[in-house]
Design brief:
This protein has 144 residues and is mainly alpha-helical. The chain folds into 2 domains: 58 residues, no CATH class; 51 residues. Helix content is 67%, strand content 4%. Strands 1-2 form a two-stranded antiparallel ribbon. β1 and β2 form a beta hairpin.
Length: 144
């Protein structure tokens, strides 16, 4: 779950914190405070946030227009950021499952009580399909 930045007098509204942090220099220039400090103090109004996210000094504007434009910018930002985060998560899951598969293959290959046919069955019918199913459920497309 991503952290959020509060909207001052926004009825509990918030926006992605990292998006605001990425414009921290403008927030500091406009308000003389860090993004963290602004969040601690209740955040920014929609029009103040609009100025920060568009890298310009604050000027009065309609709060609804500011909100809609900030939300549109946030949507574009998250669409660009979230796939990278999902890929990182998937890579870690593939690595974990690959290690598990290697351990299972090693166990099956080294177990003298299991015949060659049983080894092949365990690997081909149980271990590899389980890995493939786990990858598929996580959105991966790699074959085991």
């Amino acid at each position: 779950m991503r952290k959020t930045f509060p909207i001052l007098s926004g009825g509990g509204a918030s926006i992605d914190l990292q998006l605001v942090i990425d414009h921290g220099g403008q927030a500091k220039a406009n308000h003389g405070q860090s993004v963290t400090r602004l969040a601690e103090r209740g955040g920014l109004s929609w029009s103040e946030l609009h100025a920060v996210l568009h890298n310009r000094q604050w000027q009065k504007m309609d709060a609804n227009v500011a909100m809609l434009e900030c939300r549109a910018l946030e949507k574009k930002y998250l669409e660009a950021v979230e796939p990278r985060e999902n890929v990182t998560t998937l890579k870690a899951e593939v690595e974990r499952l690959t290690v598990a598969l290697e351990k299972a293959e090693s166990y099956v290959a080294g177990n003298q009580n299991i015949g060659q046919n049983e080894r092949g069955f365990l690997l081909d019918e149980i271990v590899r399909p389980a890995l493939a199913a786990a990858l598929h459920s996580k959105g991966g497309s790699e074959k085991a």
